[in-house]
Amino acid sequence: MEANEIAKIVQIASALEVSGYPKPGNVHRTRDYDDMVFEDFVISGIVIGDTIREACTDVDVDNPELGKYILQAVAETDRWIKNNTNLGIVMMTTPIAVAASISDSFDDIRENIKLLMGNTSVDDACDLYDAINIADAGGMGDQDEYDVASDNAKQELRENGQTMFDVLKISAPWDMLAREMTSDMPAVFEIGYPTYHKLREEKSQNDACLLTFLTILSHVPDTLISRKYGDEEALKISLMTRDLLKMKDSPDFIDRVSEFDDYMFKNRYNPGTTADLTAASIFVSYLKSHFE
Q: What CATH number has the domain bearing residue 51?
């Protein structure tokens, strides 16, 4: 697929994800937060387009420079928005986008993600650390080993020859995005994308986004919630979401979702990782349509 087309689809997926409402616990078109608002995410989705286009042009499979492009997209976002609005989306969609650009069919994408991630370098790991620090994103890589906030972090990466894949694998036990990027993206390709792809044939785009978000959250406890409040709280939210989805065909379902959104907002439960997985799932769904 052409780089221009892939970049447009990334922008579309970003816009559709943040527009989905009432998406419990996240910014959406009817819910702003004190530190970030709906328009921040719209702008963020637009400004990464050029970087995705560049990443997908003349790809060197042996050295795809995924970290370089993740850093470039985050730095460009930082020029416009002084919040971490899209680090997770950029991390998820960059390898998918580059994989799509070298794939002859949709079915090749997942295997090519694995290939590209396996060919990441130490430079990619250092660039990823810079991107995390620009976004001021807590939690990923901030354990004892290769702490991104450490002054010696990049030096340690180089001394030990740790690639981007390696450091993400270390983070995988406590960070869902790292787990996805190092394990063939099962939440996206086996839960999120199939759900969204089917729903957008039957429902409005908003309902498809909302239900995909809830479906992912019901299956996968959000690791952003886990890092803030513990695994038990994250599991509790997933179970509450599962119960909510049982009522999806009831006439007052949206009212119940709105009540859940209010509950999440009041208690500061922010399933931001689920939002990133939703955006990636929407992206994959639209890639599927454009490959057909």
A: 1.10.4200.10
Q: Number of C-alpha atoms within 13 angstroms, CB side, residue 107?
A: 0
The count of structural domains within the chain is: 1
Q: Tell me if the bond preceding 22 is cis, omega within 30° of 0.
A: yes
Mean per-residue pLDDT, 91-118: 98
pLDDT tens per residue across span 243-280? 999 999 999 999 999 999 999 999 999 999 999 999 99
Mean pLDDT rounded to a whole number for the chain: 94
Question: What amino acid is encoded at 89 in this protein?
Answer: I
The boundaries of the domain holding residue 227 are 3-291
**Which of 257, 242, 243, 259 lies closest to 207 in space, CA to CA?**
257
Q: List helix spans (H) across the chain.
A: 3-19, 38-47, 49-55, 66-80, 87-101, 109-118, 122-135, 153-160, 164-171, 176-181, 186, 193-202, 205-219, 223-229, 231-245, 253-266, 272-291
- Overall average pLDDT of the 286-292 stretch: 94
pLDDT at 147 over 90: no
Give CA–CA dist 12/102, Å, rounded: 21
58 φ, ψ to 5°?
Answer: 50, 55
Instruction: Specify the pLDDT at position 137.
Output: 61
Give the three-class secondary structure for 136: coil
- Residues 6 or more apart from 291 whose CB is under 8 A from it? 1, 103, 105, 106
Alpha carbons 242 and 260: distance in angstroms, whole number: 12
C-alpha torsion 108→109→115→119, nearest 10: 140
- What is the C-alpha to C-alpha distance for residues 181 and 158, in angstroms, rounded to an integer? 21
Report whether pLDDT(2) > 90. Answer: yes
